[in-house]
Amino acid sequence: MPLFRKSRLFASDKRGSAAVEFALVVPVMLIALVGLMDYGLMVYENTRLSQAASAGAKFAIMAGNEDDDAGIIAAVRDALPDSYDAVTVAVTRECRCPTGGVVQCDVECTGEIAPGRYLEVTVNQDYPLIFDYPHVGNEADLQSHAVIRIPD
Q1: Could you tell me which residues are beta bridge partners of residue 8?
Q2: What does pTM read for this prediction?
Q3: Does residue 26 have a pLDDT over 90?
Q4: Which of 15, 20, 56, 102 can pair with 121 through a Cys bridge, CB separation 3.0 to 4.6 Å?
Q5: Residue 37 and residue 5: Cα distance in Å, rounded?
Q6: Please, which residues have CB within 8 angstroms of residue 147's CB and are 6 or more apart in sequence?
Q7: What single-letter DSSP state applies at residue 146?
């Protein structure tokens, strides 16, 4: 059998083509699936941090606890599972005018309006990623805020 005829028979043989296509596509699909799973878990963790920041803000507004930083931080930590040891919580206060500018609390805003007092609860966590992504690395800094206006 001439070489040309053998190569033509080999090229027209379709047996095993599905296995070759499967072998080429599956690794790409698995990498995409794991990447999507990694992103989904990161969004889930960020949502949990957001809920914890809101729990701290709710504690602050309830019964006038806005000056109890330790209680606010404890409320945030209680809203998270015990596995969240590396979470950092910050509580800040500031006064803002209706225009949005931050001012000293004893200064009047334009139109002789007293500034509003605000409390912000910030929750940070370094979230370890499954892969080492370009321009991101293998860790994402997740951060959530909850801001409330303290009633006068």
Answers
A1: none
A2: 0.77
A3: yes
A4: 56
A5: 49
A6: 57, 118, 119, 120, 121
A7: E
Q: What is the DSSP string of 35-78?
A: HHHHHHHHHHHHHHHHHHHHHHHHHHHGGG-TT-HHHHHHHHHH
- How far CA 1 is from CA of 4, 6, 7, 11, in Å, comes to 8, 7, 10, 15
Return the SS3 of 152: coil
Distance CA(15)–CA(20), nearest Å, equals 10
Residue with tokens 């950092």: 88
| Domain residue spans of the chain | 15-150
Torsion over CA: 89, 83, 34, 138 (sign):
positive
Lowest mean pLDDT among 10-24, 63-77, 78-92, 128-142: 10-24
